Amino acid sequence: MSPKQTRRNYRGRAIDVSYDVRRCIHAAECVRGLPSTFNRQHVPWIEPNRSPPADVANVVMRCPSGALRFERKDAGLPEPIAARNTITLVKNGPLYVRGEVKIVSAQGEILHRDTRISLCRCGASNNKPFCDNSHIASGFKSGQPTAGHRVEMGMGGTLQITPTENGPYQMLGNIELIDAAEGIVFRGKMIRLCRCGASGEMPFCDNSHLHNGFEARSW
Ligand code: SF4
Ligand code: FES
Fold it and tell me: Is 90 exceeded by the pLDDT of residue 155?
């Protein structure tokens, strides 16, 4: 079953913006980056015509969750796909993923395509596999990333992510795992990342989900 569609459109002359409240994790890149267009005190809170379309597009692309998207109606370019697939470990929080992302079921069905997503890794989100900020209330602690994994070259191309039923994210493709403090934690082509919040080898899955009763649908 697909997640509920909650995306709303905000139309402008040269650019349309859409926003999905269920994907927003209040990182505030938008309201800090371009308060003339993104202003929570205004109704509607997104007004594309109040700023140059290129500025609107640039700020939308900073949104780590993919809650914001844009569509240019002028000669401006669409959002480029990142040349490197990156997964950034947010301390005590989600995984920020950028690249040519496909979320794929265990049976190989493509469930979702995106360029920016924020994935739950505390196990408590009500909008799995996406983060909904539940890590704050659940007191999730991500700890120091485990080192010592094999390192190969990673770059772009399709990054296939399968949220396995009651288990980790299985990722295939060129992968670069980045910790803000430690730098590159992993580069390679296949990885299993914990999404139950209980691994003793964060951010990697150590099969703790088999013993802690973690329940999550594939999609
Ligand atoms: S940048 Fe994206 S995630 Fe952050 S507040 Fe704006 S819409 Fe929400
Ligand atoms: S998903 Fe957390 S240990 Fe496997």
Answer: no
Tens-digit pLDDT profile for residues 26-59: 879 999 999 999 999 999 999 999 999 999 999 9
- Sequence-distant (≥ 6) Cβ neighbours of residue 59 within 8 angstroms: 29, 30, 33, 34, 37, 38, 68
Q: CA angle, 188 as apex, 182 and 192 as ends, to 5°?
A: 85
Residue 149 scores a pLDDT above 80: no
| Site residues for ligand 1, CB cut-off 6 Å | 24-30, 63, 65, 67-68
Note if the pTM is more than 0.85: yes
d(CA 167, CA 169): 7
The amino acid at 137: A
pLDDT tens per residue across span 131-146: 999 999 999 999 888 8
* Beta pairing class for 95-104 and 86-89: antiparallel
Estimate to the nearest angstrom the gap between the alpha carbon of 136 and the chain centroid: 17
Whether the ω angle into residue 203 lies within 30 degrees of 0, i.e. cis, is yes
Q: How far is the CA of 3 from the centre of ligand 2 (A)?
A: 22
- Which ligand 1 atom lies nearest to the CA of residue 59? 1
Question: What is the Å distance from ligand 1's center to 209 Cα?
Answer: 30
Ligand 2 centroid–CA 173 distance in Å is: 20
Cα 51 to ligand 1 centre (Å):
17
52 token code pair: 């140059």
Q: Which ligand 1 atom is nearest residue 118's CA?
A: 3
